[in-house]
Amino acid sequence: PRCGRASLPPGHKDSGSARGVSYLVGPGDNLRFNIFGEAGLSDVTARVDDAGFVQLPIIELVKVSGQSTREIQAQLKAAYGAEFNDPWVTVELLEAESAPIYFLGEFRAPGVRYMAGATNVLEAIALGGGLEEDAYLPGARLLRGDHTCTVDLQALLRNGAFDQNIWIKPHDVIFAPRKEDMSVYVLGAVGSPQAVPFGAEGRTLLQVLSIAGGPVAGQAFLSEIRIIRASSPTRGELIVLDANRILTGRGLDFPLEPGDVVFVPRSALGDWNVALGQILPSLQVLGGVLTPITLIESLSDD
Fold first, then answer.
1. How many angstroms separate the CA atoms of 191 and 172, rounded?
2. What was the pLDDT predicted at 101?
3. 232's torsion region: left (phi>0), alpha (psi -120 to 50) or beta?
4. What is the greatest pairwise CA distance in the chain?
5. CB atoms within 10 A of CB 204
């Protein structure tokens, strides 16, 4: 999915401020309330319960979930106005814990952080302490629910492609692997189609063909092996190789990159769309966070 570059994330709304958005309170947030001049109503703290309520003196349960602090303040001013003459009410967000972001992999501060306001990708990466030097940016992914967002983190961080600096949503996962965390996918007419770990030393075409059980005798069409090389979740290079030249010593073994998809066809393929149509179902069977399914779908659409 495109993951909505222009729209605001859930839990935020236009506030007319410099940032243009305001935070909406949710379950798990901690708030501080002050009703100035009234005994026992200064520095009252309360945690928003799972149903979105807080319990306050005198007025008891108050629904606050889904509102900005300014809206809650107006609500409480009206509620306490029935008890006091023109009360002065303030509401402050102490801890925002209703909107977690999860950082996995090569972050300096991996784990869970919480959005205290509208947060874009660059701000989220800063919350995670920034990336370690061995983070492999072409393999970095923004995961939303059961989908991989089509966000190119390498283009954003290395090339200043700010159209990729989208809004983060609560519960998003940002995953930045190392090269050795990734795999090379060997599919088609081989003995055992599989994801082969890339490893610290890397992989070559002949190595992964051997690990995958070798080409199926009499079926593998080795003169047109197709390789898809991802540079982002949606951009990739399409390569055609004649493995016969390598096997007969007339060409050098071909070095692979993390995330490469190696497809050994059973017959000559008319064009890339035919190959992509055969590759996608096999990748879906393999599954996994780093499987380049989003890339194959994007190339198929093109």
1. 38
2. 96
3. beta
4. 93
5. 15
**Sequential DSSP letters for 205-224:** HHHHHHHTT-BPTTT--GGG
The count of residues in the chain is 302
CA distance 250 to 100: 55
Residue 17's pLDDT band (boundaries 50, 70, 90)?
Answer: very low
Summarised one tens digit per residue, pLDDT across range 174-191 is: 999 999 999 999 999 999
Distance CA 26, CA 214 (A): 55
Residue 65 CB-half CA count within 13 A: 17
Whether the Cβ atoms of residue 203 and residue 262 lie closer than 8 Å to each other:
no
φ and ψ at residue 202, rounded to 5 degrees: 85, 180
* pLDDT top residue among 177 and 291: 177
As a whole number, the mean pLDDT across the chain is 89
Q: Among residues 183, 184, 180, 191, which one has the least CA distance to residue 220?
A: 191
Contact 203, 256 (CB under 8 A): yes
Answer whether 31's CB lies under 8 Å from 49's CB.
no
Q: Which helix (H) or strand (E) is 226 found in, with range?
A: strand 225-230
Q: What is the pLDDT of residues 140-150, one digit of tens each?
A: 999 998 888 87
Separation CA 97–CA 27 (nearest Å): 8
Specify whether the CB–CB gap between 149 and 3 falls below 8 A: yes
